[in-house]
Amino acid sequence: MIKVGVAGYGVIGQRLADGVALQKDMELVGVADVSPTLAVRALKEKGMPYNLYNALPGNETLFAEAGIPVSGTLEELVQKVDIMLDATSAGVGAKNKEIYAKYNKKAIFQGGEKNSVADVFFHGYANYEKGIDKQFLKLTSCNTTGLIRAVDCLDREVGVEKVAITIIRRVADPGDYHRGLTNALQVEKAPSHQALDLMTIMPHVNATGILVHTPVTHGHIISVVATTKKKINKAETLSFFRKHPRIRVVSLSEGFLGNASLFRYARDLGNPRGDMYEIAVWEDSVVESGNDIMFVINIPQEAVVIPENMDAIRAATSMQTDKAAGVAATNNYLGLGKWLKK
Amino acid sequence: MIKVGVAGYGVIGQRLADGVALQKDMELVGVADVSPTLAVRALKEKGMPYNLYNALPGNETLFAEAGIPVSGTLEELVQKVDIMLDATSAGVGAKNKEIYAKYNKKAIFQGGEKNSVADVFFHGYANYEKGIDKQFLKLTSCNTTGLIRAVDCLDREVGVEKVAITIIRRVADPGDYHRGLTNALQVEKAPSHQALDLMTIMPHVNATGILVHTPVTHGHIISVVATTKKKINKAETLSFFRKHPRIRVVSLSEGFLGNASLFRYARDLGNPRGDMYEIAVWEDSVVESGNDIMFVINIPQEAVVIPENMDAIRAATSMQTDKAAGVAATNNYLGLGKWLKK
Amino acid sequence: MIKVGVAGYGVIGQRLADGVALQKDMELVGVADVSPTLAVRALKEKGMPYNLYNALPGNETLFAEAGIPVSGTLEELVQKVDIMLDATSAGVGAKNKEIYAKYNKKAIFQGGEKNSVADVFFHGYANYEKGIDKQFLKLTSCNTTGLIRAVDCLDREVGVEKVAITIIRRVADPGDYHRGLTNALQVEKAPSHQALDLMTIMPHVNATGILVHTPVTHGHIISVVATTKKKINKAETLSFFRKHPRIRVVSLSEGFLGNASLFRYARDLGNPRGDMYEIAVWEDSVVESGNDIMFVINIPQEAVVIPENMDAIRAATSMQTDKAAGVAATNNYLGLGKWLKK
Amino acid sequence: MIKVGVAGYGVIGQRLADGVALQKDMELVGVADVSPTLAVRALKEKGMPYNLYNALPGNETLFAEAGIPVSGTLEELVQKVDIMLDATSAGVGAKNKEIYAKYNKKAIFQGGEKNSVADVFFHGYANYEKGIDKQFLKLTSCNTTGLIRAVDCLDREVGVEKVAITIIRRVADPGDYHRGLTNALQVEKAPSHQALDLMTIMPHVNATGILVHTPVTHGHIISVVATTKKKINKAETLSFFRKHPRIRVVSLSEGFLGNASLFRYARDLGNPRGDMYEIAVWEDSVVESGNDIMFVINIPQEAVVIPENMDAIRAATSMQTDKAAGVAATNNYLGLGKWLKK
């Protein structure tokens, strides 16, 4: 049993912890945070299903005042695990890395950290083999993770030469008050980092893109114009996506009208926290543009990176040294692709 | 075991079904809807935990085409139950009533129907006794249900003479595409129906109010100015609310910054669908206005009426002929007030 | 002096009237609407700078009760003009056409009408010559009008073979309460009508696209991937756009962060109603995608079609039978391209 | 002719400058800002109708690079005027005060500064006389300014003892990207500063209130429960408001459905920048609550404080030492109350 700890119990950290808890071949030793946030208070109200560690020495009294039991410090947690998932705020991971290195532990960082924090920039489907037995991995961000799933899917089928993406980015998560946008679309300098990151992971693809922020909280939408090595039509494109356990093909006629429909559907499915691990492709969005194929995907930003993080644990700790076996184990424990059996 | 059916499997109907399924002294016989909506498709993807009935004869093929098993018609469902919860669109309930009456079944209608559809306009805490053994009950709407909880709470402690309310109404539910508002506040003709409805249920209170629609999806916020028979201060007010199993007292310092924090917290608690049954009162909002007391409550519109609907089943079927016993059973099965034991 | 009337005094109709009033070689005879809307009440509060006609016989008393002077009926207005600009709700224009035909008048319809209502589907820059001396013209919708400006600009410089567009559509205008979207992105069936319309006007271009609705009110944003006959780089692309009097090149460093910045800028310029006739291209958005060029434009939906409507009057009435002269006259009277002289 | 300068050419500063320019008995000497913001660029595109001064020595090159002519420094501007309107960011005004004091000039600060910056906390209608001949005045913030207009109006008619207010606050201005809120209502600690500020200006009134932030940009909405010394009914209340030149009584039936309708109406009126100086009261919102009167007002946050700032210049410089004369001059030059003649 691989022992895993989680540093940072925020939007991503909570879901990483839940994800690890679902992997029957992993043990979640505990989670760490710096103060009694709402997420930590919810953990307490649930009866402390996960042990909590204090990531900021000196804050013990804050936890005590809130009546929240603490099992030790982050440094103590690190010593008990084989690998840490670091989901702290951007920049903190680089600092935490010193602790991980001190005890010679492996660690996985999230998209907010600089690439230089890690030995490899990782994506479960696109470059699993590069993560094998590495000490420090960095995962792609939510948009890039989802985008690569779709592009890699086509790439393995017919080869992808080029992609031009338009990211319609949700600007905050539900419950965020520290950031937001009101009645405005915001344009970012092109090319977007997601396109550049895709090229780092998939260097044989020419990628560029533009990102526009929108004042919503449920799911990024990415429009992709892909130039494939062999021209494919709508039906072929959909057949490729339909086989992928981390991609759900949906349609307007079923009632999936946009990102908010997918959020509602995940809640109605009874998914924990109303989350969705899979990206969605709209059947109705797939169109041919000359020899290119164009389509739209939905990225459920809160949970989309969880599967690839589980893959990363598998690769880094050599639980599975074969990509197919690694991602299959993750998919199995997270229930990904269950809908394909319908 | 009281046998219950649910007509209309939308936002409210799904939650009514879940609520009934949690009542160990009730049996959920099935749910009915008119077409394979997203909610129905989610039911199927979950493996049909509830039997589904077709509420619109002629639509059998629609369900069949979507691969959704149907157990019969709404009329057949009605014959198998003791009582129906009708959560269909406004106006449909009045039509369905003919079926309920034909088979001499009891039924509970939601806030969207006209008062005349029922024998009594019902609220679990405020007038439980009036619902006992009645055939047709109508529940208060989400805002009124939550508002009455708070006003009734103070009324039982010190007596309430008058309330002036300002409802900051969320305009859509998460996932709604059939209604919405963009960058606008919308004023409604005063007095709001919620104030009038409160007076119907609590005729000894003088109530008026103004409603303003806001472009958000998580939780109405109501500001209440209450004139009590005996002047109360902030500490007393909070102590009354803190005892109530369907009211949660929260504070800004804990991280509850607004309606979206409560939504996030419910998700982080692992509540099914990320729902919350209880209203919230902000500790920081309670202020004295001369002899009046003023405060702000949050109404989680999707699930707030579920407890009072369970109460209504208990009253209408005489499962409990005593209010205290009736609401306590509901609270117990729904886990309401668990947080009070902390 | 060409005599012009405007039917429908809503968001577009008001701006058409203002636009005609600015053309020194045209005379605005009057505007018509069916009831004392807010726009009509504003006209009255301004002292009736335009004569108002009643477009719905029977509604005279409505206007009288609101104290609004009426100069006659729509049919009477039609008889006094050379050409009508019809900006009524979709479908009404087709009905009004009978009146225009009865008096053998010319008329220009807006994007909401079916193409079959007109003899030619018109865009000032792209096919001016097709509108010359025609009786009935239909203008492209706001998104298509702005999009064609940009694509036609590149087409005339280097030739455009193909465009793949992603439209991030604002869902309502400021002040709209009859439509809206709240915290949701909405995907439409592809290809979008704007791509199809572009091909109707510019049949030599292969166009497709995807449209996503966003809950904002200021300006559509369109991402364009254009395949040109001759590869062009960023600097060349910008130099082409910078010469165009109906395109404004802006940058993030100047403070133009998104569609709302442009709306604010138009207000700060003192433009009537805070309007902007020109589309904007973000300098920072232009990137090469292999041999294609990619960029983002802003479409100020309330006013963008006004210049092309003025062009349409000029073409239909043969005021200028030469495109260059026609659009130059419009640009001059509307002050378009003034910023180029800086 | 009183000579006026404006420091800070942002949302408020631009409108103060426009307001001064409209006062025929004042001369706008110039405006000052620290860098070539969008507002400054718009000033340049308009041909520099106002002289611009550099408020941050060292930034001359920034202006030069943007091609914007500068007439000197803020300190030079101060020496040329009788009085400065300071609309800089909160806290900067206190620093600028040193310059104003150095040259013994008068100055008027905005709501963002601390009360201690000024000799008197000023509101044109409520305490004009206190501002007469004072050197430093501080104006109330936008919400408080509008609120006091309404409360003072009733107070002068029948006496106001107590108000309990609920502020539904717009969270950003159109065009703001530095702040915003997405799909969330945010509760603030009560009592709100607006209630406290009202009591500072009107010490005989007991005021408290709660503020909730909403994700919109057009106009705050305030719900007021007022306890008057003499009970008044709806008709009387409206008759008082209808006489006030800075209050517009509107109704749903006219088409004023909310704050966005008022914004649209101001644009359609042709008001510069689409601004509105007056607050609005909804006829449909006025209801009696026992002996209290309850109603809803709209606060157009961008321009509402301009009239009271003009009043402040008049009082501080003793242009008019009588309130009635002072506010009448302001109203006349700004066109306030014109609609009353209808």
TrEMBL record, chains A, B, C, D:
One of its GO terms (molecular function) is 4-hydroxy-tetrahydrodipicolinate reductase. Keywords: NAD, NADP, Nucleotide-binding, Oxidoreductase. NAD(+) binds at D33. The active site is at C142. GO terms for cellular component: cytoplasm. CDD domains: GAPDH_II_C, GAPDH_II_N. It comes from the Bacteria. Residues 147-294 form the Glyceraldehyde 3-phosphate dehydrogenase catalytic domain. InterPro entries: DapB_N (IPR000846), GlycerAld/Erythrose_P_DH (IPR020831), GlycerAld_3-P_DH_cat (IPR020829), Glyceraldehyde-3-P_DH_2_arc (IPR006436), NAD(P)-bd_dom_sf (IPR036291). Pfam families: DapB_N, Gp_dh_C. GO terms for biological process: glycolytic process; lysine biosynthetic process via diaminopimelate. HAMAP family: G3P_dehdrog_arch (MF_00559). This is Dihydrodipicolinate reductase n-terminus. It comes from Lucifera butyrica.
